[in-house]
UniProtKB/TrEMBL annotation:
<keyword id="KW-0963">Cytoplasm</keyword>
<keyword id="KW-0698">rRNA processing</keyword>
<comment type="function">
    <text>Specifically methylates the N4 position of cytidine in position 1402 (C1402) of 16S rRNA.</text>
</comment>
<feature type="binding site">
    <location>
        <position position="101"/>
    </location>
    <ligand>
        <name>S-adenosyl-L-methionine</name>
    </ligand>
</feature>
<protein>
    <recommendedName>
        <fullName>Ribosomal RNA small subunit methyltransferase H</fullName>
        <ecNumber>2.1.1.199</ecNumber>
    </recommendedName>
</protein>
<feature type="binding site">
    <location>
        <position position="80"/>
    </location>
    <ligand>
        <name>S-adenosyl-L-methionine</name>
    </ligand>
</feature>
<dbReference type="InterPro" id="IPR023397">
    <property type="entry name" value="SAM-dep_MeTrfase_MraW_recog"/>
</dbReference>
<keyword id="KW-0808">Transferase</keyword>
<dbReference type="Pfam" id="PF01795">
    <property type="entry name" value="Methyltransf_5"/>
</dbReference>
<feature type="binding site">
    <location>
        <position position="53"/>
    </location>
    <ligand>
        <name>S-adenosyl-L-methionine</name>
    </ligand>
</feature>
<dbReference type="InterPro" id="IPR002903">
    <property type="entry name" value="RsmH"/>
</dbReference>
<dbReference type="InterPro" id="IPR029063">
    <property type="entry name" value="SAM-dependent_MTases_sf"/>
</dbReference>
<feature type="binding site">
    <location>
        <begin position="33"/>
        <end position="35"/>
    </location>
    <ligand>
        <name>S-adenosyl-L-methionine</name>
    </ligand>
</feature>
<feature type="binding site">
    <location>
        <position position="108"/>
    </location>
    <ligand>
        <name>S-adenosyl-L-methionine</name>
    </ligand>
</feature>
<comment type="similarity">
    <text>Belongs to the methyltransferase superfamily. RsmH family.</text>
</comment>
<keyword id="KW-0949">S-adenosyl-L-methionine</keyword>
<keyword id="KW-0489">Methyltransferase</keyword>
Amino acid sequence: MEFKHKSVLLDETIEGLSIRPDGIYVDGTLGGAGHASEVCQRLSAKGRFIGIDQDQDAIIAASERLAAYEDRVTIIRSNYCYMVNELKNLGIQKVNGIVLDLGVSSYQLDNEERGFTYRVDAPLDMRMDQRQSRTAADIVNGYDEKELYRIIRDYGEDKFAKNIAKHIVAARAKAPIQTTGELTEIIRQSIPMKIQATGGHPAKRTFQAIRIELNRELDVLRESLDGMINLLDDGGRICIITFHSLEDRIVKTIFRKNENPCTCPPDFPVCVCGKESKGKVITRKPILPSAVEMEENPRSKSAKLRIFERRYKK
Ligand SMILES: C[S@@+](CC[C@H](N)C(=O)[O-])C[C@H]1O[C@@H](n2cnc3c(N)ncnc32)[C@H](O)[C@@H]1O
């Protein structure tokens, strides 16, 4: 299957990176190399680009797309949570820019075999990293009702989370739920017909919730962000595109904390905690896609771009 993915907030991200032709740039969510190829085009032979993705299909597609820049490109199959170590292995301690374009690519969603979509019947998989042993089926058949309710409510923001979790547990008591089609049918039965006729696809939110849980998307982001900010050289920027309100909240909170880490009570005349600012939040409000982009690429509708610039103490 051809790797198709339309990059979101492309111009805004490239402008936000403020690329130096001789700089070192990292994309932690390489995908089809849409953002990456724009970065590479702007680098001179002295520049360097490192692309990371945990998905083998993305690595193959990106390697082909970036072949023309092979003198300055290194592609690594890994989770971006290992970025600091992966770069250390290449002898790189500091970089000038980092991009994260979170979530799944359209290719992953559209590829029937990967089990991300409720549109076709396929094994319940949803792994971004095919080397991982746990799949969506393990969550659907293994989590207790309370845990299922929590993830569908929090990560899917589904009003019918309680009912969906109850129906899943009842259905799997008869036989394990093995396919996306079986799960979709169970979700349909958990949501009133009236709502199904008006809202989007009834399974959309639950599928999103299971995918986020399985791939530990929020935990990985939360655990990695400080380390990535520390990787930035003076003036270096990190640009992060999120698609979920909880992801965006994590980015906003950690950026703010790095700008102003002081933990002294507000009435202290001087700072005594000794925690120093790591830089500046460039986007007080997130950058959103234009009306034209949303029209051309509906997937971009929930996207938000936030940018942080590292500033060293002079
Ligand atoms: C939205 S796509 C990126 C698309 C890319 N920016 C482009 O324009 O072609 C997200 C990609 O990030 C990868 N990904 C998501 N989380 C990851 C993680 N924690 N570590 C490595 N790759 C990850 C997915 O496998 C997917 O290929």
